[in-house]
Amino acid sequence: MPLRRKKEVTEAAFSRREREIMDILYTLGSASGQEVQARLSGEPSYSTVRTLLRVLETKGHVTHTAEDLRYVYRPAAPRDSARRSALNRLVHTFFEGSAKQAVAAFLDPGAYELSRTDLEELSEMIRKAKEEAR
To answer: Range of 100's domain?
Structure first.
């Protein structure tokens, strides 16, 4: 059965490099252009990084503040919102929209090691989801 979402999430079309910058900003919480540049693959120029940051800001995905003569960039959307969007993209791209198939992949003992405690916590989450679905 395809994934049903409670609220429609619009996934922005990011280029590979824009996605990489967003991943860096979510990981760090905030970063200067130089900090982003240092973590990007392929050694892009500083002007390229600044241009991409301005593009992301124009699109509404990034904000900046001036701190000590430099701009510090932050994701505009909360991490939880970005997490849901990324998960939605993953489920639709690799699991044909099936949340069940995605969960089954995580439960595959050959793919991940889940402790007994992890499995008990997941069981409790499933129990609560069943109650809410009634």
So the answer is: 95-133
